[in-house]
């Protein structure tokens, strides 16, 4: 049932189409209707704003419908507050670098809001946490040195995997470009390229983490019957 009558705060009924997706968690849902108000705005449009509760994230959101004289909706004008989609990371990766996951998603939100100058710096910072946490995981005795060293030196001295090394080095170059007054790589979309490279690094790191996890699984002894 995606279309239905709802009872507004004045007791009247309005025919609306239920939002198909929660604007906060972006999951397709059948929202629970809570409250609605019908009013005329300054442009003399007849509107109905309804409040719903998402059964998945359990937060409230609001949808505004343009309605006709018969109190039937014409279309849904807006639905919010819109929250940016977040990237879901592999559980092994979340364990070794929760800060990377957090910073990457903040950069993604900045990018979603059109803050191109800020998000590049965010991706550069995310890269630093990803690489350093990955290196600390593989070299726990070097933790203090890795924490204090420049990212470029960490990449040069500690990364053995040639794939991750190339990708991390070039992502750092592009990331540094985002933080400096003068751009060196002004002939490419550095933010988009950094994101693609970071995702490629994630592929290799997540594969290594999965292999390490698989190596921990021991054969179970068969029970004698
Ligand atoms: Zn939701």
Can I get a quick summary?
This protein is an alpha+beta fold and 225 residues long. It is 46% helix and 19% strand.
Structure report:
46% of the residues lie in helices and 19% in strands. The protein is α+β, with helices and mostly antiparallel strands. The chain has two domains: 3-80, no CATH class; 91-215, Four Helix Bundle (Hemerythrin (Met), subunit A). The strands form two sheets. The chain has a four-stranded antiparallel sheet, with no helix packed on it. The chain has a two-stranded antiparallel ribbon with strand order 1-2. It has helices at residues 91-96, 98-112, 116-138, 143-148, 151-158, 162-179, 190-216, and strands spanning 3-7, 13-17, 32-40, 46-53, 60-67, 73-80. The chain is built from seven helices and six strands; from the N terminus they run E-E-E-E-E-E-H-H-H-H-H-H-H. Strand 3 and strand 4 (46-53) form a beta hairpin. The chain binds zinc ion (ZN). Zinc ion (ZN) binds at residues 22, 24-25, 27, 54, 56-57, 59.
Describe the secondary structure blueprint for this structure.
Blueprint: E1 3-7, E2 13-17, E3 32-40, E4 46-53, E5 60-67, E6 73-80, H1 91-96, H2 98-112, H3 116-138, H4 143-148, H5 151-158, H6 162-179, H7 190-216
Antiparallel strand pairs: 1-2, 3-4, 4-5, 5-6
The structure holds zinc ion.
Zinc ion (ZN) is lined by residues 22, 24-25, 27, 54, 56-57, 59.
